[in-house]
């Protein structure tokens, strides 16, 4: 977290932020071929009116359609059937929850029956 949540000398309360400047997404157990996308667009939408979300200094609100960042394909391993995508966007958010998802839309799981 970027801020401690304590008040500053000006009397304003500092919000605790989750901030990242680089992040990777690894997608595994998928078919790697010429149709594997070069990039993946993530659209971030605040889940409550109290949530503040910024991408590269641009804030979005719950009333907006969200804000996007693009992850570019960084590595592809055909043998292990994994693709790694990376984003270097500066992303900050207040009241963030991070959950692990087992399914990634747009990618097929070859073991799904």
From TrEMBL:
- The lineage's top-level taxon is Eukaryota
Q: What is this protein called?
A: Erythronate-4-phosphate dehydrogenase family protein
Organism, per UniProt? Striga hermonthica (Purple witchweed)
């Amino acid at each position: 977290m970027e801020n401690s949540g304590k008040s500053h000398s000006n009397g304003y309360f500092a919000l605790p932020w989750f901030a990242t400047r680089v992040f990777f997404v690894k997608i595994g157990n998928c078919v790697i071929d010429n149709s594997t996308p070069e990039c993946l667009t993530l659209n971030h939408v605040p889940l409550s009116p109290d949530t503040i979300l910024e991408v590269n200094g641009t804030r979005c609100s719950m009333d907006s359609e969200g804000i996007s960042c693009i992850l570019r394909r960084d590595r592809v391993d055909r043998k292990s059937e994994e693709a790694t995508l990376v984003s270097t966007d500066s992303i900050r958010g207040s009241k963030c929850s991070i959950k692990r998802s087992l399914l990634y839309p747009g990618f097929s799981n070859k073991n799904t029956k």
